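Appendix B, record 7
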Amino acid sequence: MAMSLRLSPGPHSLWDEPLVISVHGLAPAQPVTLRASLRDEKRELFQASARYQADAGGQLDLARAPALGGSYSGVEPMGLFRTLRSETPSERLVKRDVQTPFLVDLKVYEGHDPQPTKVLAQVVHERGFLGPGVKRIPVREGSVRATLFLPPGAGPFPGIIDLHGTGGGLCEYRASLLAGHGFAVLALAYFRFEDLPKELTDLHLGYFEEALDYMLQHPEESPTSGSCHP
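Structure tokens (predicted):
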């Protein structure tokens, strides 16, 4: 049996979608190291790795097999994604353009060497942020600077105003994923974006009231369910 690394569903999935990761065609009890890596839009490298051992049939299922060390230990079906880290301590993994996916390179290496070199199997998996039919609508209404994400269908949908992004700017990745679960989500910038204030100390509460009014008047958003989530 040819060795293979399988991800299901594949080769595409959403960033918040669980994956089934398995390796087939190994020798019984064979030691291997799995590594995931991706580069963000700034070309910063993020990686995670873990050591595993195949079962008596030469199979490895991350939903059942415990990691024996590395970036994590124990049974962690999504550990390779959850523990992705940059070698630069201050860098966080943030999706800046939700219209494009992250490309995650997954490799199976022979043995448990801390710096393995022999690749046994490899796949590249796309992890996206816009679900099928989700609409992305830039919003420049009055002083509101935002992006509205709408689920597929006619609505009305329960509404959320997402204030994610403590460093400023317009942060869309959480809002885009929530829209895939049936919410109308306004990703709202509130400082350090376009003509908005540069500092938090210059904010006016009327800005958030204006954003809430926009959501409550939108035809595809349920007027009884507007809420703010920082």
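Remarks on this record: The longest helix spans residues 205-217. The longest strand covers residues 119-128.
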